[in-house]
Amino acid sequence: MVMAVFRRLNFRFNPVFRFVLSLTLLNLLSAPAGQCQEESTFALHVGTLLKKAGESPLKDQTVLIEGGLIASILPGFHTFDDNPALEIIDLRQAFVMPGLIDTHVHLSTDHRPESTLSVVKSSSAELAIIVARNAESILMAGFTTVMDLGNGWRQHEQAVYAVRDAISQGALPGPEILAAGSPIAAHGFARTGRFNDAVEFAGGPEGTCQGPESCRYQVLEQLYRGADFINVYPTGSLLQQPSPQQTLTNDELSAIAETADLAGVKVIADGGNSPVGAAGINRAIEYGFDIIDTVTFPDNATFRLLNRNDGYFAPHVYALEAAVGDTPETLEKGSMGWLPRSILEQLYALKQQTPSALVGYREKSKLILASDSGVFPHGDNGNELLAYSKLGITPADTLAAATINAATAFGIEARTGHIAPGLEADLVAFRESPLENMGIVAHPELVISDGRIFYMGKH
Ligand SMILES: [Zn+2]
Questions:
Q1: For the segment 381-392, what is each residue's pLDDT rounded down to a tens digit?
Q2: Which residues form a coiled coil (predicted)?
Q3: Distance (Å) from CA 232 to ligand 1 centroid
């Protein structure tokens, strides 16, 4: 795209700017599948630039983007007089920060009860369309990277990998996707049943193992099929009764951690859901799991072990808020109101407790943002940042959880999670600073993912 005129247009109100960006989006959507969409070269004039969460934002900066990467960051508003054709996007009224990262989404499902069966009945091709649609919704919410945690279905694996690859080739709009494939679980604890045995028997679950060698094989199998990291269920689930505190043996957990480590991929313990104890999650930390996820019931040792091992904690705050109503009379009013009454009551009781996110934060554990979207509509992922704020987690720590911490936890901080020359051009612009008004994160104005520009027409 060639812009012959140096433009100083306010992107919020100017219809020409909207039109130009619509054309950019149209170009993206019309790119033939599998063909790499060439990223354009352009510059941003940024009023307030947060290069890395935790640092002080800089005033009046110019960011040059070339070939999908950040080429340079210059103080002041450079006019590039030697290159009059260069497109310059006016963000002088905006706050620009690294693109958000959500480390826990379920791209092929949503919160509606019929979604439970659709993942079984649908072909991988049909699910791929759902995954692509959900991925685009999350991108439009300001998220340029997401981690799909899987659900134990082969069709889901295939759909997510296909969409992941299409997005990375520029053939579809969406955030970069890192995918777990199917979670590794003990027999009977793969969480695929969803209160319907017919669902469990219909073709799943993938990824279950018995014994260290079998678990080692399942890790390698997931990686062979295309997983970017490994997700493990070391305990029971909130959606299952009873929910044991440990479902994989010590030897199995050790074998999983060792295999992932040898393969050079991160491994997540997604559990800690037993009111009886936290053995499963604590053993996982001791064996070297990189991230603990969910952990509704930590014990006194959990965060001490995690901090000692330099691990990360990915709690879900908004998902519980959204899933169930706020009073015993309105339990069914939440996004998961179709769940059995006994589960809703358990979730409601949890809602009255101090969230483990806050316990971990007070223990100075490193938090990473993990919304669990799919429990609530995809695209509402920014509500997780608002939920952090409501708990009293500082805006700076909230933004770090959603950017640099998440990138570092997954070992991709050399590519994304902050804004620096050489990194992928993953940025989001807001009308005001989320450091002063976190509510604005639900209303991004502009998202740039791998140097491709997307405008938020709906806000
Ligand atoms: Zn989940």
A1: 999 999 999 999
A2: none
A3: 11
